[in-house]
Amino acid sequence: MAGEVLAAAVPYASSQSLCNSQTSRRVSSLSSILCRDLAPRLLCLQRDLRYTVNDAAYRNNNAVIRSHAKLIDSIAVEKSGIDERLSVPNVYSQQYSIAMKFGGSSVASAARMKEVADLILSFPDENPIIVLSAMGKTTNNLLKAGEVAVSCGVAKCTAISELNAVKDLHLSTVGELQVDPSVITELLEELSQLITGISLMKELTSRTKDYLVSFGERLSTRIFAAYLQLRGVKARQYDAFELGFITTDEFTNAEILDATYPAVAKRLSADWSRDPGLIPVVTGFLGKGHKTGAITTLGRGGSDLTATALGKALGLREIQVWKDVDGVLTCDPNIHPVASPVPFLTFDEAAELAYFGAQVLHPQSMRPAREGNIPVRVKNSYNPQASGTLIQKCRDLSETFLTSIVVKRDVTMLDIVSTRMLGQFGFLARVFTIFEKLGISVDVVATSEVSISLTLDPSKLWSRELIQQASELDHMVKELEKIAVVKLLRKRAIISLIGNVERSSLILEKVFCVFIEKGINVQMISQGASKVNISLIVNDDEAEVCVKALHAAFFENLSSSHADSVPCVLAC
Ligand SMILES: Nc1ncnc2c1ncn2[C@@H]1O[C@H](COP(=O)(O)OP(=O)(O)O)[C@@H](O)[C@H]1O
Ligand SMILES: N[C@@H](CC(=O)OP(=O)(O)O)C(=O)O
């Protein structure tokens, strides 16, 4: 298909002699005059061109260059007011259009996989890339099986109930879907060997953990791609670590490296050219460490990030993440079931919400979407009719007061009061150098001239073994005590209010009314530079009461008084 697109572009080419550098210059000069709705297309074009220029295989491909020239010309035409958009071939729009990510809850069983397949096929005009997580609780079961294997002894490995639950689930799914079991038999055998290996070694390193949990996504995608094929769909399974997802070697919490985007775009584009109409089924969550070459994972819930990275790599029209809730909700429904969907969010709001504890999105997942300016839609695979949440660069905040309440539990807080051995600058610098050296991330900070209160990011701390955590905290306190009096306060919670911080006084007025009524004392308060978040620290055992009471005050007994006098604010 891409071959056809390129061939179609040849007659339109404005200059047969256009060379790569000329094309680059034209892209750059045009970027300055582009109106906003064309920017994402130009970005996509610039990136595509960069790959083309950098790639020896494409270097002499005049057809590619000519198609770029045609696209650049089309953008210029649009700028001058003559909209030829519909008659212009666009390389990407004729390949993949959207990414559809389905989480563990959406593909938890054979029945769910059938429904997800129906859902995908109910969009016949789309050319989707599918991203899947592991089925149901498979990731947790694999981790548990690994932990048990460390101490149970080789002879008992075959009896590990979590291992057998994983095997049974996948074998019964294959049976119910009438897929050939050979698509997973080798993987299941490899998994058993790995568990035996862990048992023999009596240790489960984070590198091995990533290899172990990778079986979840590798199994689910193989089954689902085979099932789509049975239904006559041209589906193909991809392991992200073979597709070009290159990451840091920080096992269990790896970061996607920039080299991923061109590698993935090149590979998927080439495969489409060979096989137009192809539907890739890609493992979420997984990557390949750039130094070790070993399988890495992107942190729990990382399949969201895989989907947004694919969206950016291919300049897709939209990234859809399909969950088991009607979108991003006003608070965690497990704490307060009356939570309702939030229709619109900005990338910044969604990122803040995810970072401060809303389980619904991976904390880093907004970054590629924001960089590529690709809208993200959060939808419910159990209720596709629900409109969900649309996350984009900007939204009208004129009606917005508070958007969502999120809570991060079991947080450690530090009160650090200077002994005045150092000046103020020296004090702050020394404190943060200690955190840097120990690799401990800080979430919320409030400072005065001689003291700092802050919370430690639990996700970074919890990724360490318990013993390591305790000794690190001990070491950190000892270091800080050289310059300060330190109080370590455990079992705190961060309640973050995501909303229109232009109205922070009104928000805080209401918050403090609620807290006074409930007799709750706020121990620290911080309004981040992001301007969409106010964070309050309370005791962990008060967190649920706070969230319910705040939700009732902000979302359940709405009076129009706050919205009336507010000017229109466009958040970007
Ligand atoms: N603010 C929120 N909005 C929506 N869901 C939330 C929120 N906070 C917590 N959740 C939880 O996140 C879950 C969805 O995220 P997740 O389990 O990662 O989905 P999936 O595995 O399908 O990707 C919901 O079932 C819900 O319990
Ligand atoms: N399976 C991985 C990755 C993931 O993204 O899962 P989910 O989409 O179900 O949150 C996990 O459980 O963390």
From TrEMBL:
- Pathway(s): Amino-acid biosynthesis; L-methionine biosynthesis via de novo pathway; L-homoserine from L-aspartate: step 1/3; Amino-acid biosynthesis; L-lysine biosynthesis via DAP pathway; (S)-tetrahydrodipicolinate from L-aspartate: step 1/4; Amino-acid biosynthesis; L-threonine biosynthesis; L-threonine from L-aspartate: step 1/5
What is the organism lineage in this UniProt record? Eukaryota, Viridiplantae, Streptophyta, Embryophyta, Tracheophyta
Q: ACT domain location, by residue?
A: 416-494
PANTHER family, from UniProt? ASPARTATE KINASE, ASPARTOKINASE
Organism listed in the record: Ceratopteris richardii (Triangle waterfern)
Q: What does this protein do?
A: Involved in the first step of essential amino acids lysine, threonine, methionine and isoleucine synthesis via the aspartate-family pathway.
Checking NCBIfam families in the record gives: asp_kinases
Documented EC number(s): 2.7.2.4
In terms of PROSITE patterns, this protein maps to:
ACT
One protein family per Pfam = ACT_9
Protein family per UniProt = Belongs to the aspartokinase family.
The catalytic activity, as recorded, is:
L-aspartate + ATP = 4-phospho-L-aspartate + ADP
Q: Which terms are listed as keywords in the entry?
A: Amino-acid biosynthesis, ATP-binding, Chloroplast, Kinase, Nucleotide-binding, Plastid, Repeat, Threonine biosynthesis, Transferase, Transit peptide
Which compartments does it reside in? Answer: Plastid, Chloroplast
Task: Write the protein's name.
Answer: aspartate kinase
Classify the source by domain of life: Eukaryota
- Enzyme class at the top of the EC tree: transferase
Which InterPro entries does this UniProt record tie to the protein?
AceGlu_kinase-like_sf (IPR036393), ACT-like_dom_sf (IPR045865), ACT_Aspartokinase (IPR054352), ACT_dom (IPR002912), Asp/Glu/Uridylate_kinase (IPR001048), Asp_kinase (IPR001341), AsparK_Bifunc_asparK/hSer_DH (IPR042199)
Q: Name one GO molecular function term.
A: aspartate kinase activity
List, in alphabetical order, the GO biological process terms annotated in this UniProt record.
Answer: homoserine biosynthetic process; lysine biosynthetic process via diaminopimelate; threonine biosynthetic process
CC annotations in GO: chloroplast stroma; cytosol
